[in-house]
Amino acid sequence: MITLYGVLRSRASRPGWLLYEAGAAFTHVPVIQAWRLKGAGGEVPLNTASPAFLRVNPMGQIPALVDGALVLTESLAITLHLARTVGGALGPRDVAEAALMEQWAFFAASAIEVPALEIASAERDGTMAAPEGRSIVALAAQTLRRPLARVEAHLAGAGQMVGGRFTVADINLAESVRYAQGHPTLLDAFPAVKAWLEACQSRPAFRKMWAARMAEAA
User: Fold this and answer.
1) H/E run at residue 4
2) In this structure, are residues 168 and 101 in contact, taking their beta carbons and an 8 Å threshold?
3) N or C: which end of the chain has fewer CB within 10 A?
4) Last residue of some domain: 69, 90, 111?
């Protein structure tokens, strides 16, 4: 039995989306980040500092996945594993596709996610229009232009990230690019990326995951 730990207002959105795409049965345990509970009164929910969760992931981070005897605690490793085991066409059809899916996962983490998160943080904190926020966002957007140009060229020719079909590679990359969506103009310079991201987010499984995410406490 597959058990996914972590609220969807986290990187648990990635495996959550994939599981909905696959139509796979799983148990969702909505562990919340401990830092979000500072100053909260009343009963403390299961969180990343709870002893029960630390027995699953001693690092105290979400998401975590338990699949039988296997425990995984990195979101990209989780999605790649699920794609191979329950994902059907979301996963690789041969070793070449497996390598490409791994490549795009590492690319998302190393080239996209960090600067994209700078933009998401400024948007969330309401600092995007402040002088310091504008400087951070401008630098992040500039850093993203080179990797987004690579994705733009790839999508313009291929339409999808791997195999000409929607796969785990699209999920992993789309969830990293999503962090930069709050920038007012960045994605306009990359029309193929923008159209691809909108198509990814129009999928019923994404909308199902997003509705569940938005139903969680902010």
Assistant:
1) strand 2-5
2) yes
3) C
4) 90
**Residues in the chain, overall count:** 218
**Structural domain span for residue 24:** 2-90
pLDDT tens column, 93-127: 999 999 999 999 999 999 999 999 999 999 988 88
Closest listed residue to residue 86, CA positions, set 65, 56, 62: 65
The number of distinct structural domains making up the chain is: 2
Secondary structure element (H or E) that encloses residue 27, with its range: strand 27-29
CATH number for 113: 1.20.1050.10
- What is the pTM assigned to this prediction? 0.95
126's torsion region: left (phi>0), alpha (psi -120 to 50) or beta?
left
pLDDT > 70? residue 41:
no
